[in-house]
Specification:
Elements: E1 11-16, E2 46-48, E3 56-62, H1 65-72, E4 80-87, H2 92-100, E5 102-104, E6 107-109, E7 113-120, E8 123-130, H3 137-143, E9 148-157, E10 160-161, E11 171-173, H4 176-185, H5 198-203
Parallel strand pairs: 3-9
Antiparallel strand pairs: 1-3, 1-11, 2-3, 4-8, 4-9, 5-6, 7-8, 9-10
Length: 216
């Protein structure tokens, strides 16, 4: 097995709370998704895509710029799944239109899957899947049908689901085996990270001293 030893390839799953911005620095002084990540001795965390301030849920971070670029490139065909609470009457014809494709201001867009999840009346939860990371795509698709999105949370990015134990504002680092599987999926050489110390093993679950989950 061949490993690229030039640098480490660390990857973590972060559960973004509402109200955080996806930039490294915010001129308005708002909390950012980088504020609660573990410190690095070298390199920096790179966000794989972004979520707007009113969207919560799964964000991937990596120390490997090539991996981040490959994951975000449209040719990767990586699906993103969202849990969405909508206000309005949704029928089967609407769902068919959303899956067939709708013309938005920046081109055609569609859900590759739409599944009813929970709720009754005008407030219902659905799980939807998109193949791109276009700005506000999920919200704009629903709005094109006269439906208002009241809650939006990303629950999956490709093969990675948001673990139930990763609360809002906390993170979980992937283990070497999981990173190797991701590298293989993206057609990249594997990178062997340094052996874990007891402190680093504890950090894998986001349990840094003095860091607590932020409010949902």
């Amino acid at each position: 097995m061949v490993f690229d030893r030039k640098s480490e390839r660390r990857v973590l799953i972060y559960n973004k709370p509402l109200g955080e911005v996806s930039t490294r620095h915010d001129p308005e002084g708002r909390s950012t998704v980088f504020d609660h990540l573990p410190p690095l001795k070298q390199g920096r965390w790179i966000a794989v895509g972004r979520l707007d301030i009113n969207t919560s849920g799964l964000l991937l971070f990596t120390t490997d710029g090539d991996l981040a670029n490959n994951l975000m490139h449209p040719s990767a065909n990586i699906d993103r799944e969202y849990a969405v609470r909508v206000l309005g009457d949704v029928d089967e014809d609407m769902i068919k239109r959303l899956k067939k494709g709708v013309l938005l201001e920046d081109g055609m867009a569609k859900f590759t899957d739409v599944q009813y999840f929970d709720g009754a009346g005008a407030n219902k939860w659905y799980h939807v899947v998109v193949m791109e990371g276009r700005n506000r795509e999920v919200r704009r698709l629903w709005e094109s049908q006269g439906i208002k999105v009241s809650r939006l949370k990303r629950v999956r990015y490709g093969p990675f689901f948001l673990p139930s134990e990763v609360k809002a504002g906390t993170w979980k680092e992937l283990e070497q085996k999981e990173i190797n599987q991701l590298s293989n999926m993206m057609g990249m050489k594997q990178k062997r990270n340094k052996a874990l110390t007891p402190k680093r093993k504890k950090q894998l679950s986001g349990e840094l001293s003095g860091r607590r989950p932020v409010a949902r």
